[in-house]
Amino acid sequence: MLTTGNQLRAARALADMDQGTLAKRAGININTVSAMEKKGAEGLTSGLDKVRAVMTVLEAEGIEFLNHGSPGVRLKAKP
């Protein structure tokens, strides 16, 4: 689950995607993505629908969200 702004920034970097592209593909405003990332290590406060939309786009790019003790991301292994 996507839980922090830093996790979102890292996921977006791994997916090689800018904020505008992510926002467009997720159907949300670029300011929402920016605000989410500005939370840094704090928990996201955006609505679950927006967080889920962002996660769906990034997961389609091969991003896996990790929360085993601390939030993280990695690229899924390719078959």
Q: How is the secondary structure organized here?
A:
Blueprint: H1 5-14, H2 19-26, H3 30-38, H4 48-60, E1 63-66, E2 72-75
Antiparallel strand pairs: 1-2
Helix pairs in contact: 1-3, 2-3, 2-4
* Biggest pleated-sheet summary: 2 strands, antiparallel
List low-confidence stretches. Answer: none
Secondary-structure element series: HHHHEE
Chain-averaged pLDDT: 94
Give the spatial strand order of the biggest sheet: 1-2
In percent, how helical is the residue content? 40-55%
Number of strands: 2
Q: Give the radius of gyration.
A: 11 Å
Total helical segments: 4
Strand residue percentage: 5-15%
Shape: globular
Structural class: mainly alpha
Ends apart, CA distance between termini:
23 Å
